[in-house]
Write a structure and sequence with these properties.
heterodimer; A: about 170 residues; alpha/beta; Rossmann fold; 7 helices; globular; B: about 550 residues; alpha+beta; Sulfite Reductase Hemoprotein, domain 2; Sulfite Reductase Hemoprotein, domain 1; 4 domains; six-stranded mixed beta sheet; five-stranded antiparallel beta sheet; 18 helices; oxidoreductase activity (chain B); 4 iron, 4 sulfur cluster binding (chain B); 4Fe-4S (chain B); heme binding (chain B); Nit/Sulf_reduc_fer-like_dom_sf (chain B)
Chain lengths: ~170, ~550
């Protein structure tokens, strides 16, 4: 079974991934959606066609207009955000919005070109699970969470910027 | 100047250790060059023509003497004995070994310096003007907010992988000396009618292949909202900026595509969610940071120093230097001194040797308050010198080839490193600068010409800000040969303008002649006391073009 990193009670851990990522909408339609993460576009088409579905998890591409579906997304078990390349930083803003503006408090997963040196940024933007790119050593990647103890600015993980705590020292 | 506390110290150390690990993984092959690229760029490391180049951050251009001594040490120990001050008020070293980069960063950390985000698609070094805090025409000191913005942008998790680089400048004087409107975001701080600190925010400026001056998107923003407002701008840009084409990825293209009003409306809408949130700045934080910049060591001295006035009267060369390179200070009895890094042919603009750096650091301690500034024109400034010490300083600066009285004159050339070093360049910049400096080596003639800015870029990326020069030179490649395109009419400051191309480009050897023809036309048609840029505005470009192309081979 593939592995993911998940933050459990503040501690990143490598664990089995009990979800299957379905990349293409055509494949999603061919399968029972149980324990599958399907494309947002597929979920949207099901809604538009008023077809019943048991979709429990979707993944959002940075091009998707997810904000128009926020009320419907609340019933998901997992929302994943895709990083088509690790240089595409739109997913950080998507995650920030899902967590801070739309109060998504379920699992928020980073998928796609997810590399070790981005994990800390992703965590700070509210991701709590990480499907590290398959060709990379996940046990190696997990070490990267410990590099920083100082955060200047507020983010999803801690909205209070350092300047609001600094005086207290 | 700003002093790190335990938090800042720890963060910089953590950054060094992270980068040491990344370099080790690159060297072992765990990281591919493609994966390593954005990591090393965000640590200031480029892979250039001959070697790695390291760009060290000089936040808002402010340095202590101890920091400058460290920069000299780095130049000697890890490079070839010099560094290059850039148009972003940073310093670059051109001959760095990848293996040694983490050691350099570790040494820099001991004097509270780093190379974080001096490159890459993230928020770059925040800039302001070289006379911040000492300028007589200053309305507010921009440095506290610049430092606050530096901290906010440092390792900001949401904005580390933007569509393109992102540059922010602040100005808070009557005269804009920070080229604010050529930045992605520019902020003018001022006091409103009620005496409150407010911000006028511009967005969508930038040079490069599509040069655009930024547009105002907001006025009268209370300073407490600086971070949330910039966050709103960056979020809109991060989400909607183009990523399909590197050359269309800057925020200026987004602002242009949406229209400035629609862009401003998007930002306002985003900001409404952030307004009054936890990133709203507090008076306490402003005061904490501002405290470090308040200079309390000024002596009570007379505004007129009889010795200094006698020295001025006795020594024409000294007087000439004072007139050109020494500037009024807000504290009586003090002045700000610009040490020109452009003594003429033979020294690339902005290049300073380790030995010169050590001398400058010593002068900052002896004659000033231990502080040094870097200007975006690539000169070095001693901001606080007592009038009575100016002569002694001048005498020593002359010996170090740092006292050329050419500030703001034709030979105060801004130039990027160009094809001699940069792997992006289409043509060399430094030999052009050199040939022009050689042709115009008569100081009396240059003084008579007066204010005239000349900027040279070796490629369309415009690191030499050629669009902003009264005369701009852009290196272009035509079938593998170096050619130079000339623009005139560019200007920085309150009347910022972008230069316009005068016609077909020239060969390198023609360039001094072209500049000579432009200058000649100016001398023929100017009226008494009129600057080059004003003559051009009055008579138009035609007489200049006619003279240049009439003589062209």
């Amino acid at each position: 079974m593939p592995k993911i990193i998940r933050i459990n009670a503040g501690v990143p851990q490598v664990m089995d991934d009990d979800w299957e990522l379905v990349r293409a909408a055509e494949l999603a339609s061919a399968c029972e959606p149980h324990r599958k993460i399907v494309p947002l576009s597929y979920f949207r088409s099901m809604l538009e066609e008023h077809r019943p579905s048991n979709i429990q998890a979707v993944w959002i591409s940075p091009d998707d207009d997810f904000e128009s579906l926020v009320p419907e997304l609340r019933s998901m078990k997992v929302i994943a955000v895709d990083f088509p390349t690790f240089r595409d930083g739109r997913g950080y803003s998507v995650a920030t919005l899902l967590r801070s503006r739309y109060q998504w408090d379920g699992e928020l997963r980073a998928i796609g070109d997810v590399l070790r040196d981005q994990l800390n940024y992703m965590r700070r933007c509210g991701f709590d699970s990480f499907a590290v790119r398959a060709d990379k050593d996940i046990d190696d990647a997990i070490k990267s969470f410990n590099h920083y103890s100082v955060k200047y600015q507020g983010a999803v993980d801690d909205p209070l910027p350092l300047f609001r705590r600094r005086g207290g020292l | 100047m700003y002093q790190y506390d335990e938090y800042d110290e720890v963060l910089v150390r953590e950054r060094v250790s992270e980068f040491r690990d990344q370099v080790a993984r690159r060297l072992s092959g765990d990281l591919s060059e493609e994966e390593f690229l954005p990591l090393r760029l965000q640590n200031g490391l480029y892979n250039q023509k001959h070697a790695y180049m390291l760009r060290v951050a000089i936040p808002y251009g402010v340095l202590s003497s101890a920091q400058l001594r460290m920069l000299a040490h780095i130049a000697r120990r890890y490079d070839r004995g010099y560094g290059h001050f850039t148009t972003r008020q940073n310093i670059q070293y051109n001959w760095i070994k990848l293996e040694e980069a983490p050691d350099i960063l570790q040494e820099l950390a001991t004097v509270q310096m780093h190379a974080i985000q001096t490159s890459g698609n993230c928020v770059r070094n925040i800039t302001t003007e070289q006379f911040a805090g000492v300028a007589a025409d200053e309305i507010l000191d921009p440095r506290p907010l610049a430092e606050i913005l530096r901290q906010w942008s440092t390792l900001n998790p949401e904005f580390a992988f933007l569509p393109r680089k992102f540059k922010i400048a602040l100005s808070a004087s009557k005269e804009d000396r920070a080229a604010v409107r050529m930045h992605d975001v520019g902020v003018y701080m001022h006091l409103n009618a009620a005496g409150q600190k407010v911000l006028r925010v511009f967005a969508g400026g930038g040079l490069g292949r599509t040069p655009i001056l930024s547009s105002q998107i907001r006025d009268d923003l209370p300073w407490q909202h600086l971070l949330s407002y910039v966050e709103a701008i960056l979020r809109v840009y991060n989400r909607y900026g183009r990523r399909d084409n590197k050359y269309k990825a800057r925020i200026k293209i987004l602002v242009k595509a949406l229209g400035v009003d629609a862009f401003a409306a998007e930002v306002e809408q985003e900001w409404l969610h952030l307004k009054d949130g936890p990133s709203t700045l507090t008076e306490d934080e402003y005061e904490r940071v501002a405290h470090f910049f308040r200079q309390e060591r000024y002596e009570q001295v007379d505004a007129h120093d009889p010795t200094f006035e006698r020295q001025l009267a006795d020594n024409k060369r000294f007087a000439q230097w004072v007139k050109r390179n020494v500037r009024e200070h807000k504290v009586p009895g003090y002045a700000s001194v610009t040490l020109s890094t452009k003594p003429g042919a033979g020294v690339p603009p902005g290049d300073v040797t380790a030995e010169q750096m050590e001398h400058i650091a010593a002068w900052a301690d002896e004659f000033g308050l231990g502080e040094i500034r870097i200007a975006h024109e690539q000169n070095v400034i001693l901001p606080d010198v007592r009038l009575r010490d100016l002569h002694a300083l001048w005498y020593r600066a002359v010996a170090q080839n740092l006292a050329t009285p050419n500030l703001g004159l034709l030979t105060d050339i801004i130039a990027c490193p160009g094809g001699d070093y940069c792997s992006l360049a289409n043509a060399r910049s430094l030999p052009i600068a050199e040939s022009i400096a050689r042709r115009f080596d008569d100081l009396d003639f240059l003084c008579d010409l007066g204010e005239l800015s000349l900027n040279i870029s070796g490629c369309i990326n415009a690191c030499g800000h050629h669009h902003m020069g009264n005369i701009g030179v852009l290196g272009v490649d035509k079938d593998g040969e170096e050619w130079y395109q000339v623009t005139i009419g560019g200007a920085q400051g309150n009347e910022s303008a972008l230069g316009k191309v005068i016609g077909p480009s020239f060969r390198a050897e023609e360039m001094p002649g072209v500049i000579e023809r432009l200058v000649e036309t100016y001398c023929q048609v100017r009226v008494e006391g009129e600057a080059f840029i004003d003559t051009l505005a009055r008579v138009g470009a035609e007489p200049f073009k006619a003279n240049v192309y009439h003589h062209a081979v």
